[in-house]
């Protein structure tokens, strides 16, 4: 009898599909939204891949800080590419279905990106702490081996969290057509349409998200407390200004990312809040990956100088 029930459950899961409603309740806005998101995605791809290329070709940028920034840019590019193409497709086609495998895969890579970025920002905070509080020993502490280890640990933990959460999603059973009132396959939305007991999945995401947020914010806040104390002890105003300016871009990126994540997961999961959930999802899956390269490039002289040189080289090539 148990074997028969198990086979029925497997057959139901195999035929399960998901419908991503996205912004379908606003039919007149489908084309304008498509153009807006296409523009944002184009800027995101050019900005993040451009940042990676600039850091690679400019010897001045071969430092630990820019090494971490190049990986942050790659994660942002990857994250946006996991989510945005499907969003664009759903804005121009009537069939908004996605298979179970496609939905779980999207969540898998999305989870890796979010967790990796969370700890990459924490690693960058630690890097700024060492640079400002121990400038004479900076290159000794932040060796190439340690930098690679920190980046590898961020990616590895992202994969570990994603594999764990995805494994338990795959163990759940699904049937028929399941409606997700969002444009992306969020963990909570997948669990809510499952036929299985959601308790374990809800507890796993709660523990995982809480641990990742608290541990990363402890690293960030501790680093910047020591940075603030060190900077305030500097005798010259110019030195203070220079130290704070080197942290300004990173602090901006951290504030936007963590504020959005906390706000999104604090919104009650009710019908009245679905619009806010969608807007929050748009911000941290589509907007933030575009903003990060702009934040770092607009406040960085070396990056802007490299961009100017590349533009001048292209202009000279065209003239010849």
Report on this structure.
- The protein has helices at residues 2-14, 30-57, 64-92, 100-133, 138-141, 144-171, 187-192, 199-232, 237-266, 274-298, 301-319, and strands spanning 17-20, 97-99, 177-180.
- The protein has eleven helices and three strands, in the order αβααβαααβααααα.
- By secondary structure, it is mostly helical.
- A three-stranded mixed beta sheet has the order 2-1-3.
- The model is unreliable at 1-12 (pLDDT under 50).
- The protein has a single domain, classed as Rhopdopsin 7-helix transmembrane proteins (Up-down Bundle), CATH 1.20.1070.10.
Provide a short characterization of the protein structure:
With 320 residues, the chain is mainly alpha-helical. 78% of the residues lie in helices and 3% in strands.
What's the rounded overall pLDDT mean? 84
How are strands sequenced across the largest beta sheet?
Answer: 2-1-3
Element order, helices and strands? HEHHEHHHEHHHHH
Instruction: Kindly estimate the percentage of residues that lie in beta strands according to DSSP.
Output: under 5%
Distance between termini? 79 Å
Q: How many β-strands, per DSSP? A: 3
What is the overall silhouette?
Answer: globular
Q: Give me the CATH architecture, please.
A: Up-down Bundle
How is this fold's topology laid out?
Blueprint: H1 2-14, E1 17-20, H2 30-57, H3 64-92, E2 97-99, H4 100-133, H5 138-141, H6 144-171, E3 177-180, H7 187-192, H8 199-232, H9 237-266, H10 274-298, H11 301-319
Parallel strand pairs: 1-3
Antiparallel strand pairs: 1-2
Helix pairs in contact: 2-3, 2-10, 3-4, 3-10, 4-6, 4-8, 4-9, 6-8, 9-10
């Amino acid at each position: 009898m148990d074997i028969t029930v198990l086979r029925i459950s497997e057959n139901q899961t195999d035929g399960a599909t998901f419908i991503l409603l996205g912004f379908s309740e606003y039919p007149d806005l489908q084309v304008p939204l498509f153009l807006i998101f296409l523009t944002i995605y184009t800027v995101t791809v050019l900005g993040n891949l451009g940042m990676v290329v600039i850091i690679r070709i400019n010897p001045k940028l071969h430092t630990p800080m820019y090494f971490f920034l190049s990986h942050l840019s790659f994660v942002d590019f990857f994250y946006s590419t996991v989510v945005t193409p499907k969003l664009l497709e759903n804005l121009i086609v009537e069939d908004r279905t996605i298979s179970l495998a496609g939905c779980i895969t999207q969540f898998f890579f999305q989870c890796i990106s979010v967790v990796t970025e969370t700890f990459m920002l924490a690693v960058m905070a630690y890097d700024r702490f060492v640079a400002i509080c121990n400038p004479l020993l900076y290159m000794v502490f932040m060796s190439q081996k340690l930098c690679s280890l920190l980046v590898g640990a961020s990616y590895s933990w992202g994969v570990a969290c994603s594999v764990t959460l995805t494994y338990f999603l795959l163990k759940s059973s699904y049937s028929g057509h399941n409606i997700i009132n969002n444009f992306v396959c969020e963990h909570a939305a997948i669990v809510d349409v499952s036929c299985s007991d959601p308790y374990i999945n809800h507890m796993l995401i709660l523990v995982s998200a809480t641990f990742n947020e608290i541990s990363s914010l402890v690293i960030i806040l501790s680093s910047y407390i020591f940075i603030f104390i060190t900077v305030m002890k500097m005798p010259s105003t110019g030195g203070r200004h220079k130290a704070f300016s080197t942290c300004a871009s990173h602090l901006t990126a951290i504030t936007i990312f963590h504020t959005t994540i906390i706000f999104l997961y604090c919104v009650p999961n009710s019908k009245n809040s679905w619009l806010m959930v969608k807007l929050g999802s748009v911000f941290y899956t589509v907007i933030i990956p575009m903003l990060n390269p702009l934040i770092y490039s607009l406040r960085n002289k070396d990056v802007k100088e490299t961009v100017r040189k590349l533009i001048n080289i292209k202009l000279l090539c065209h003239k010849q």
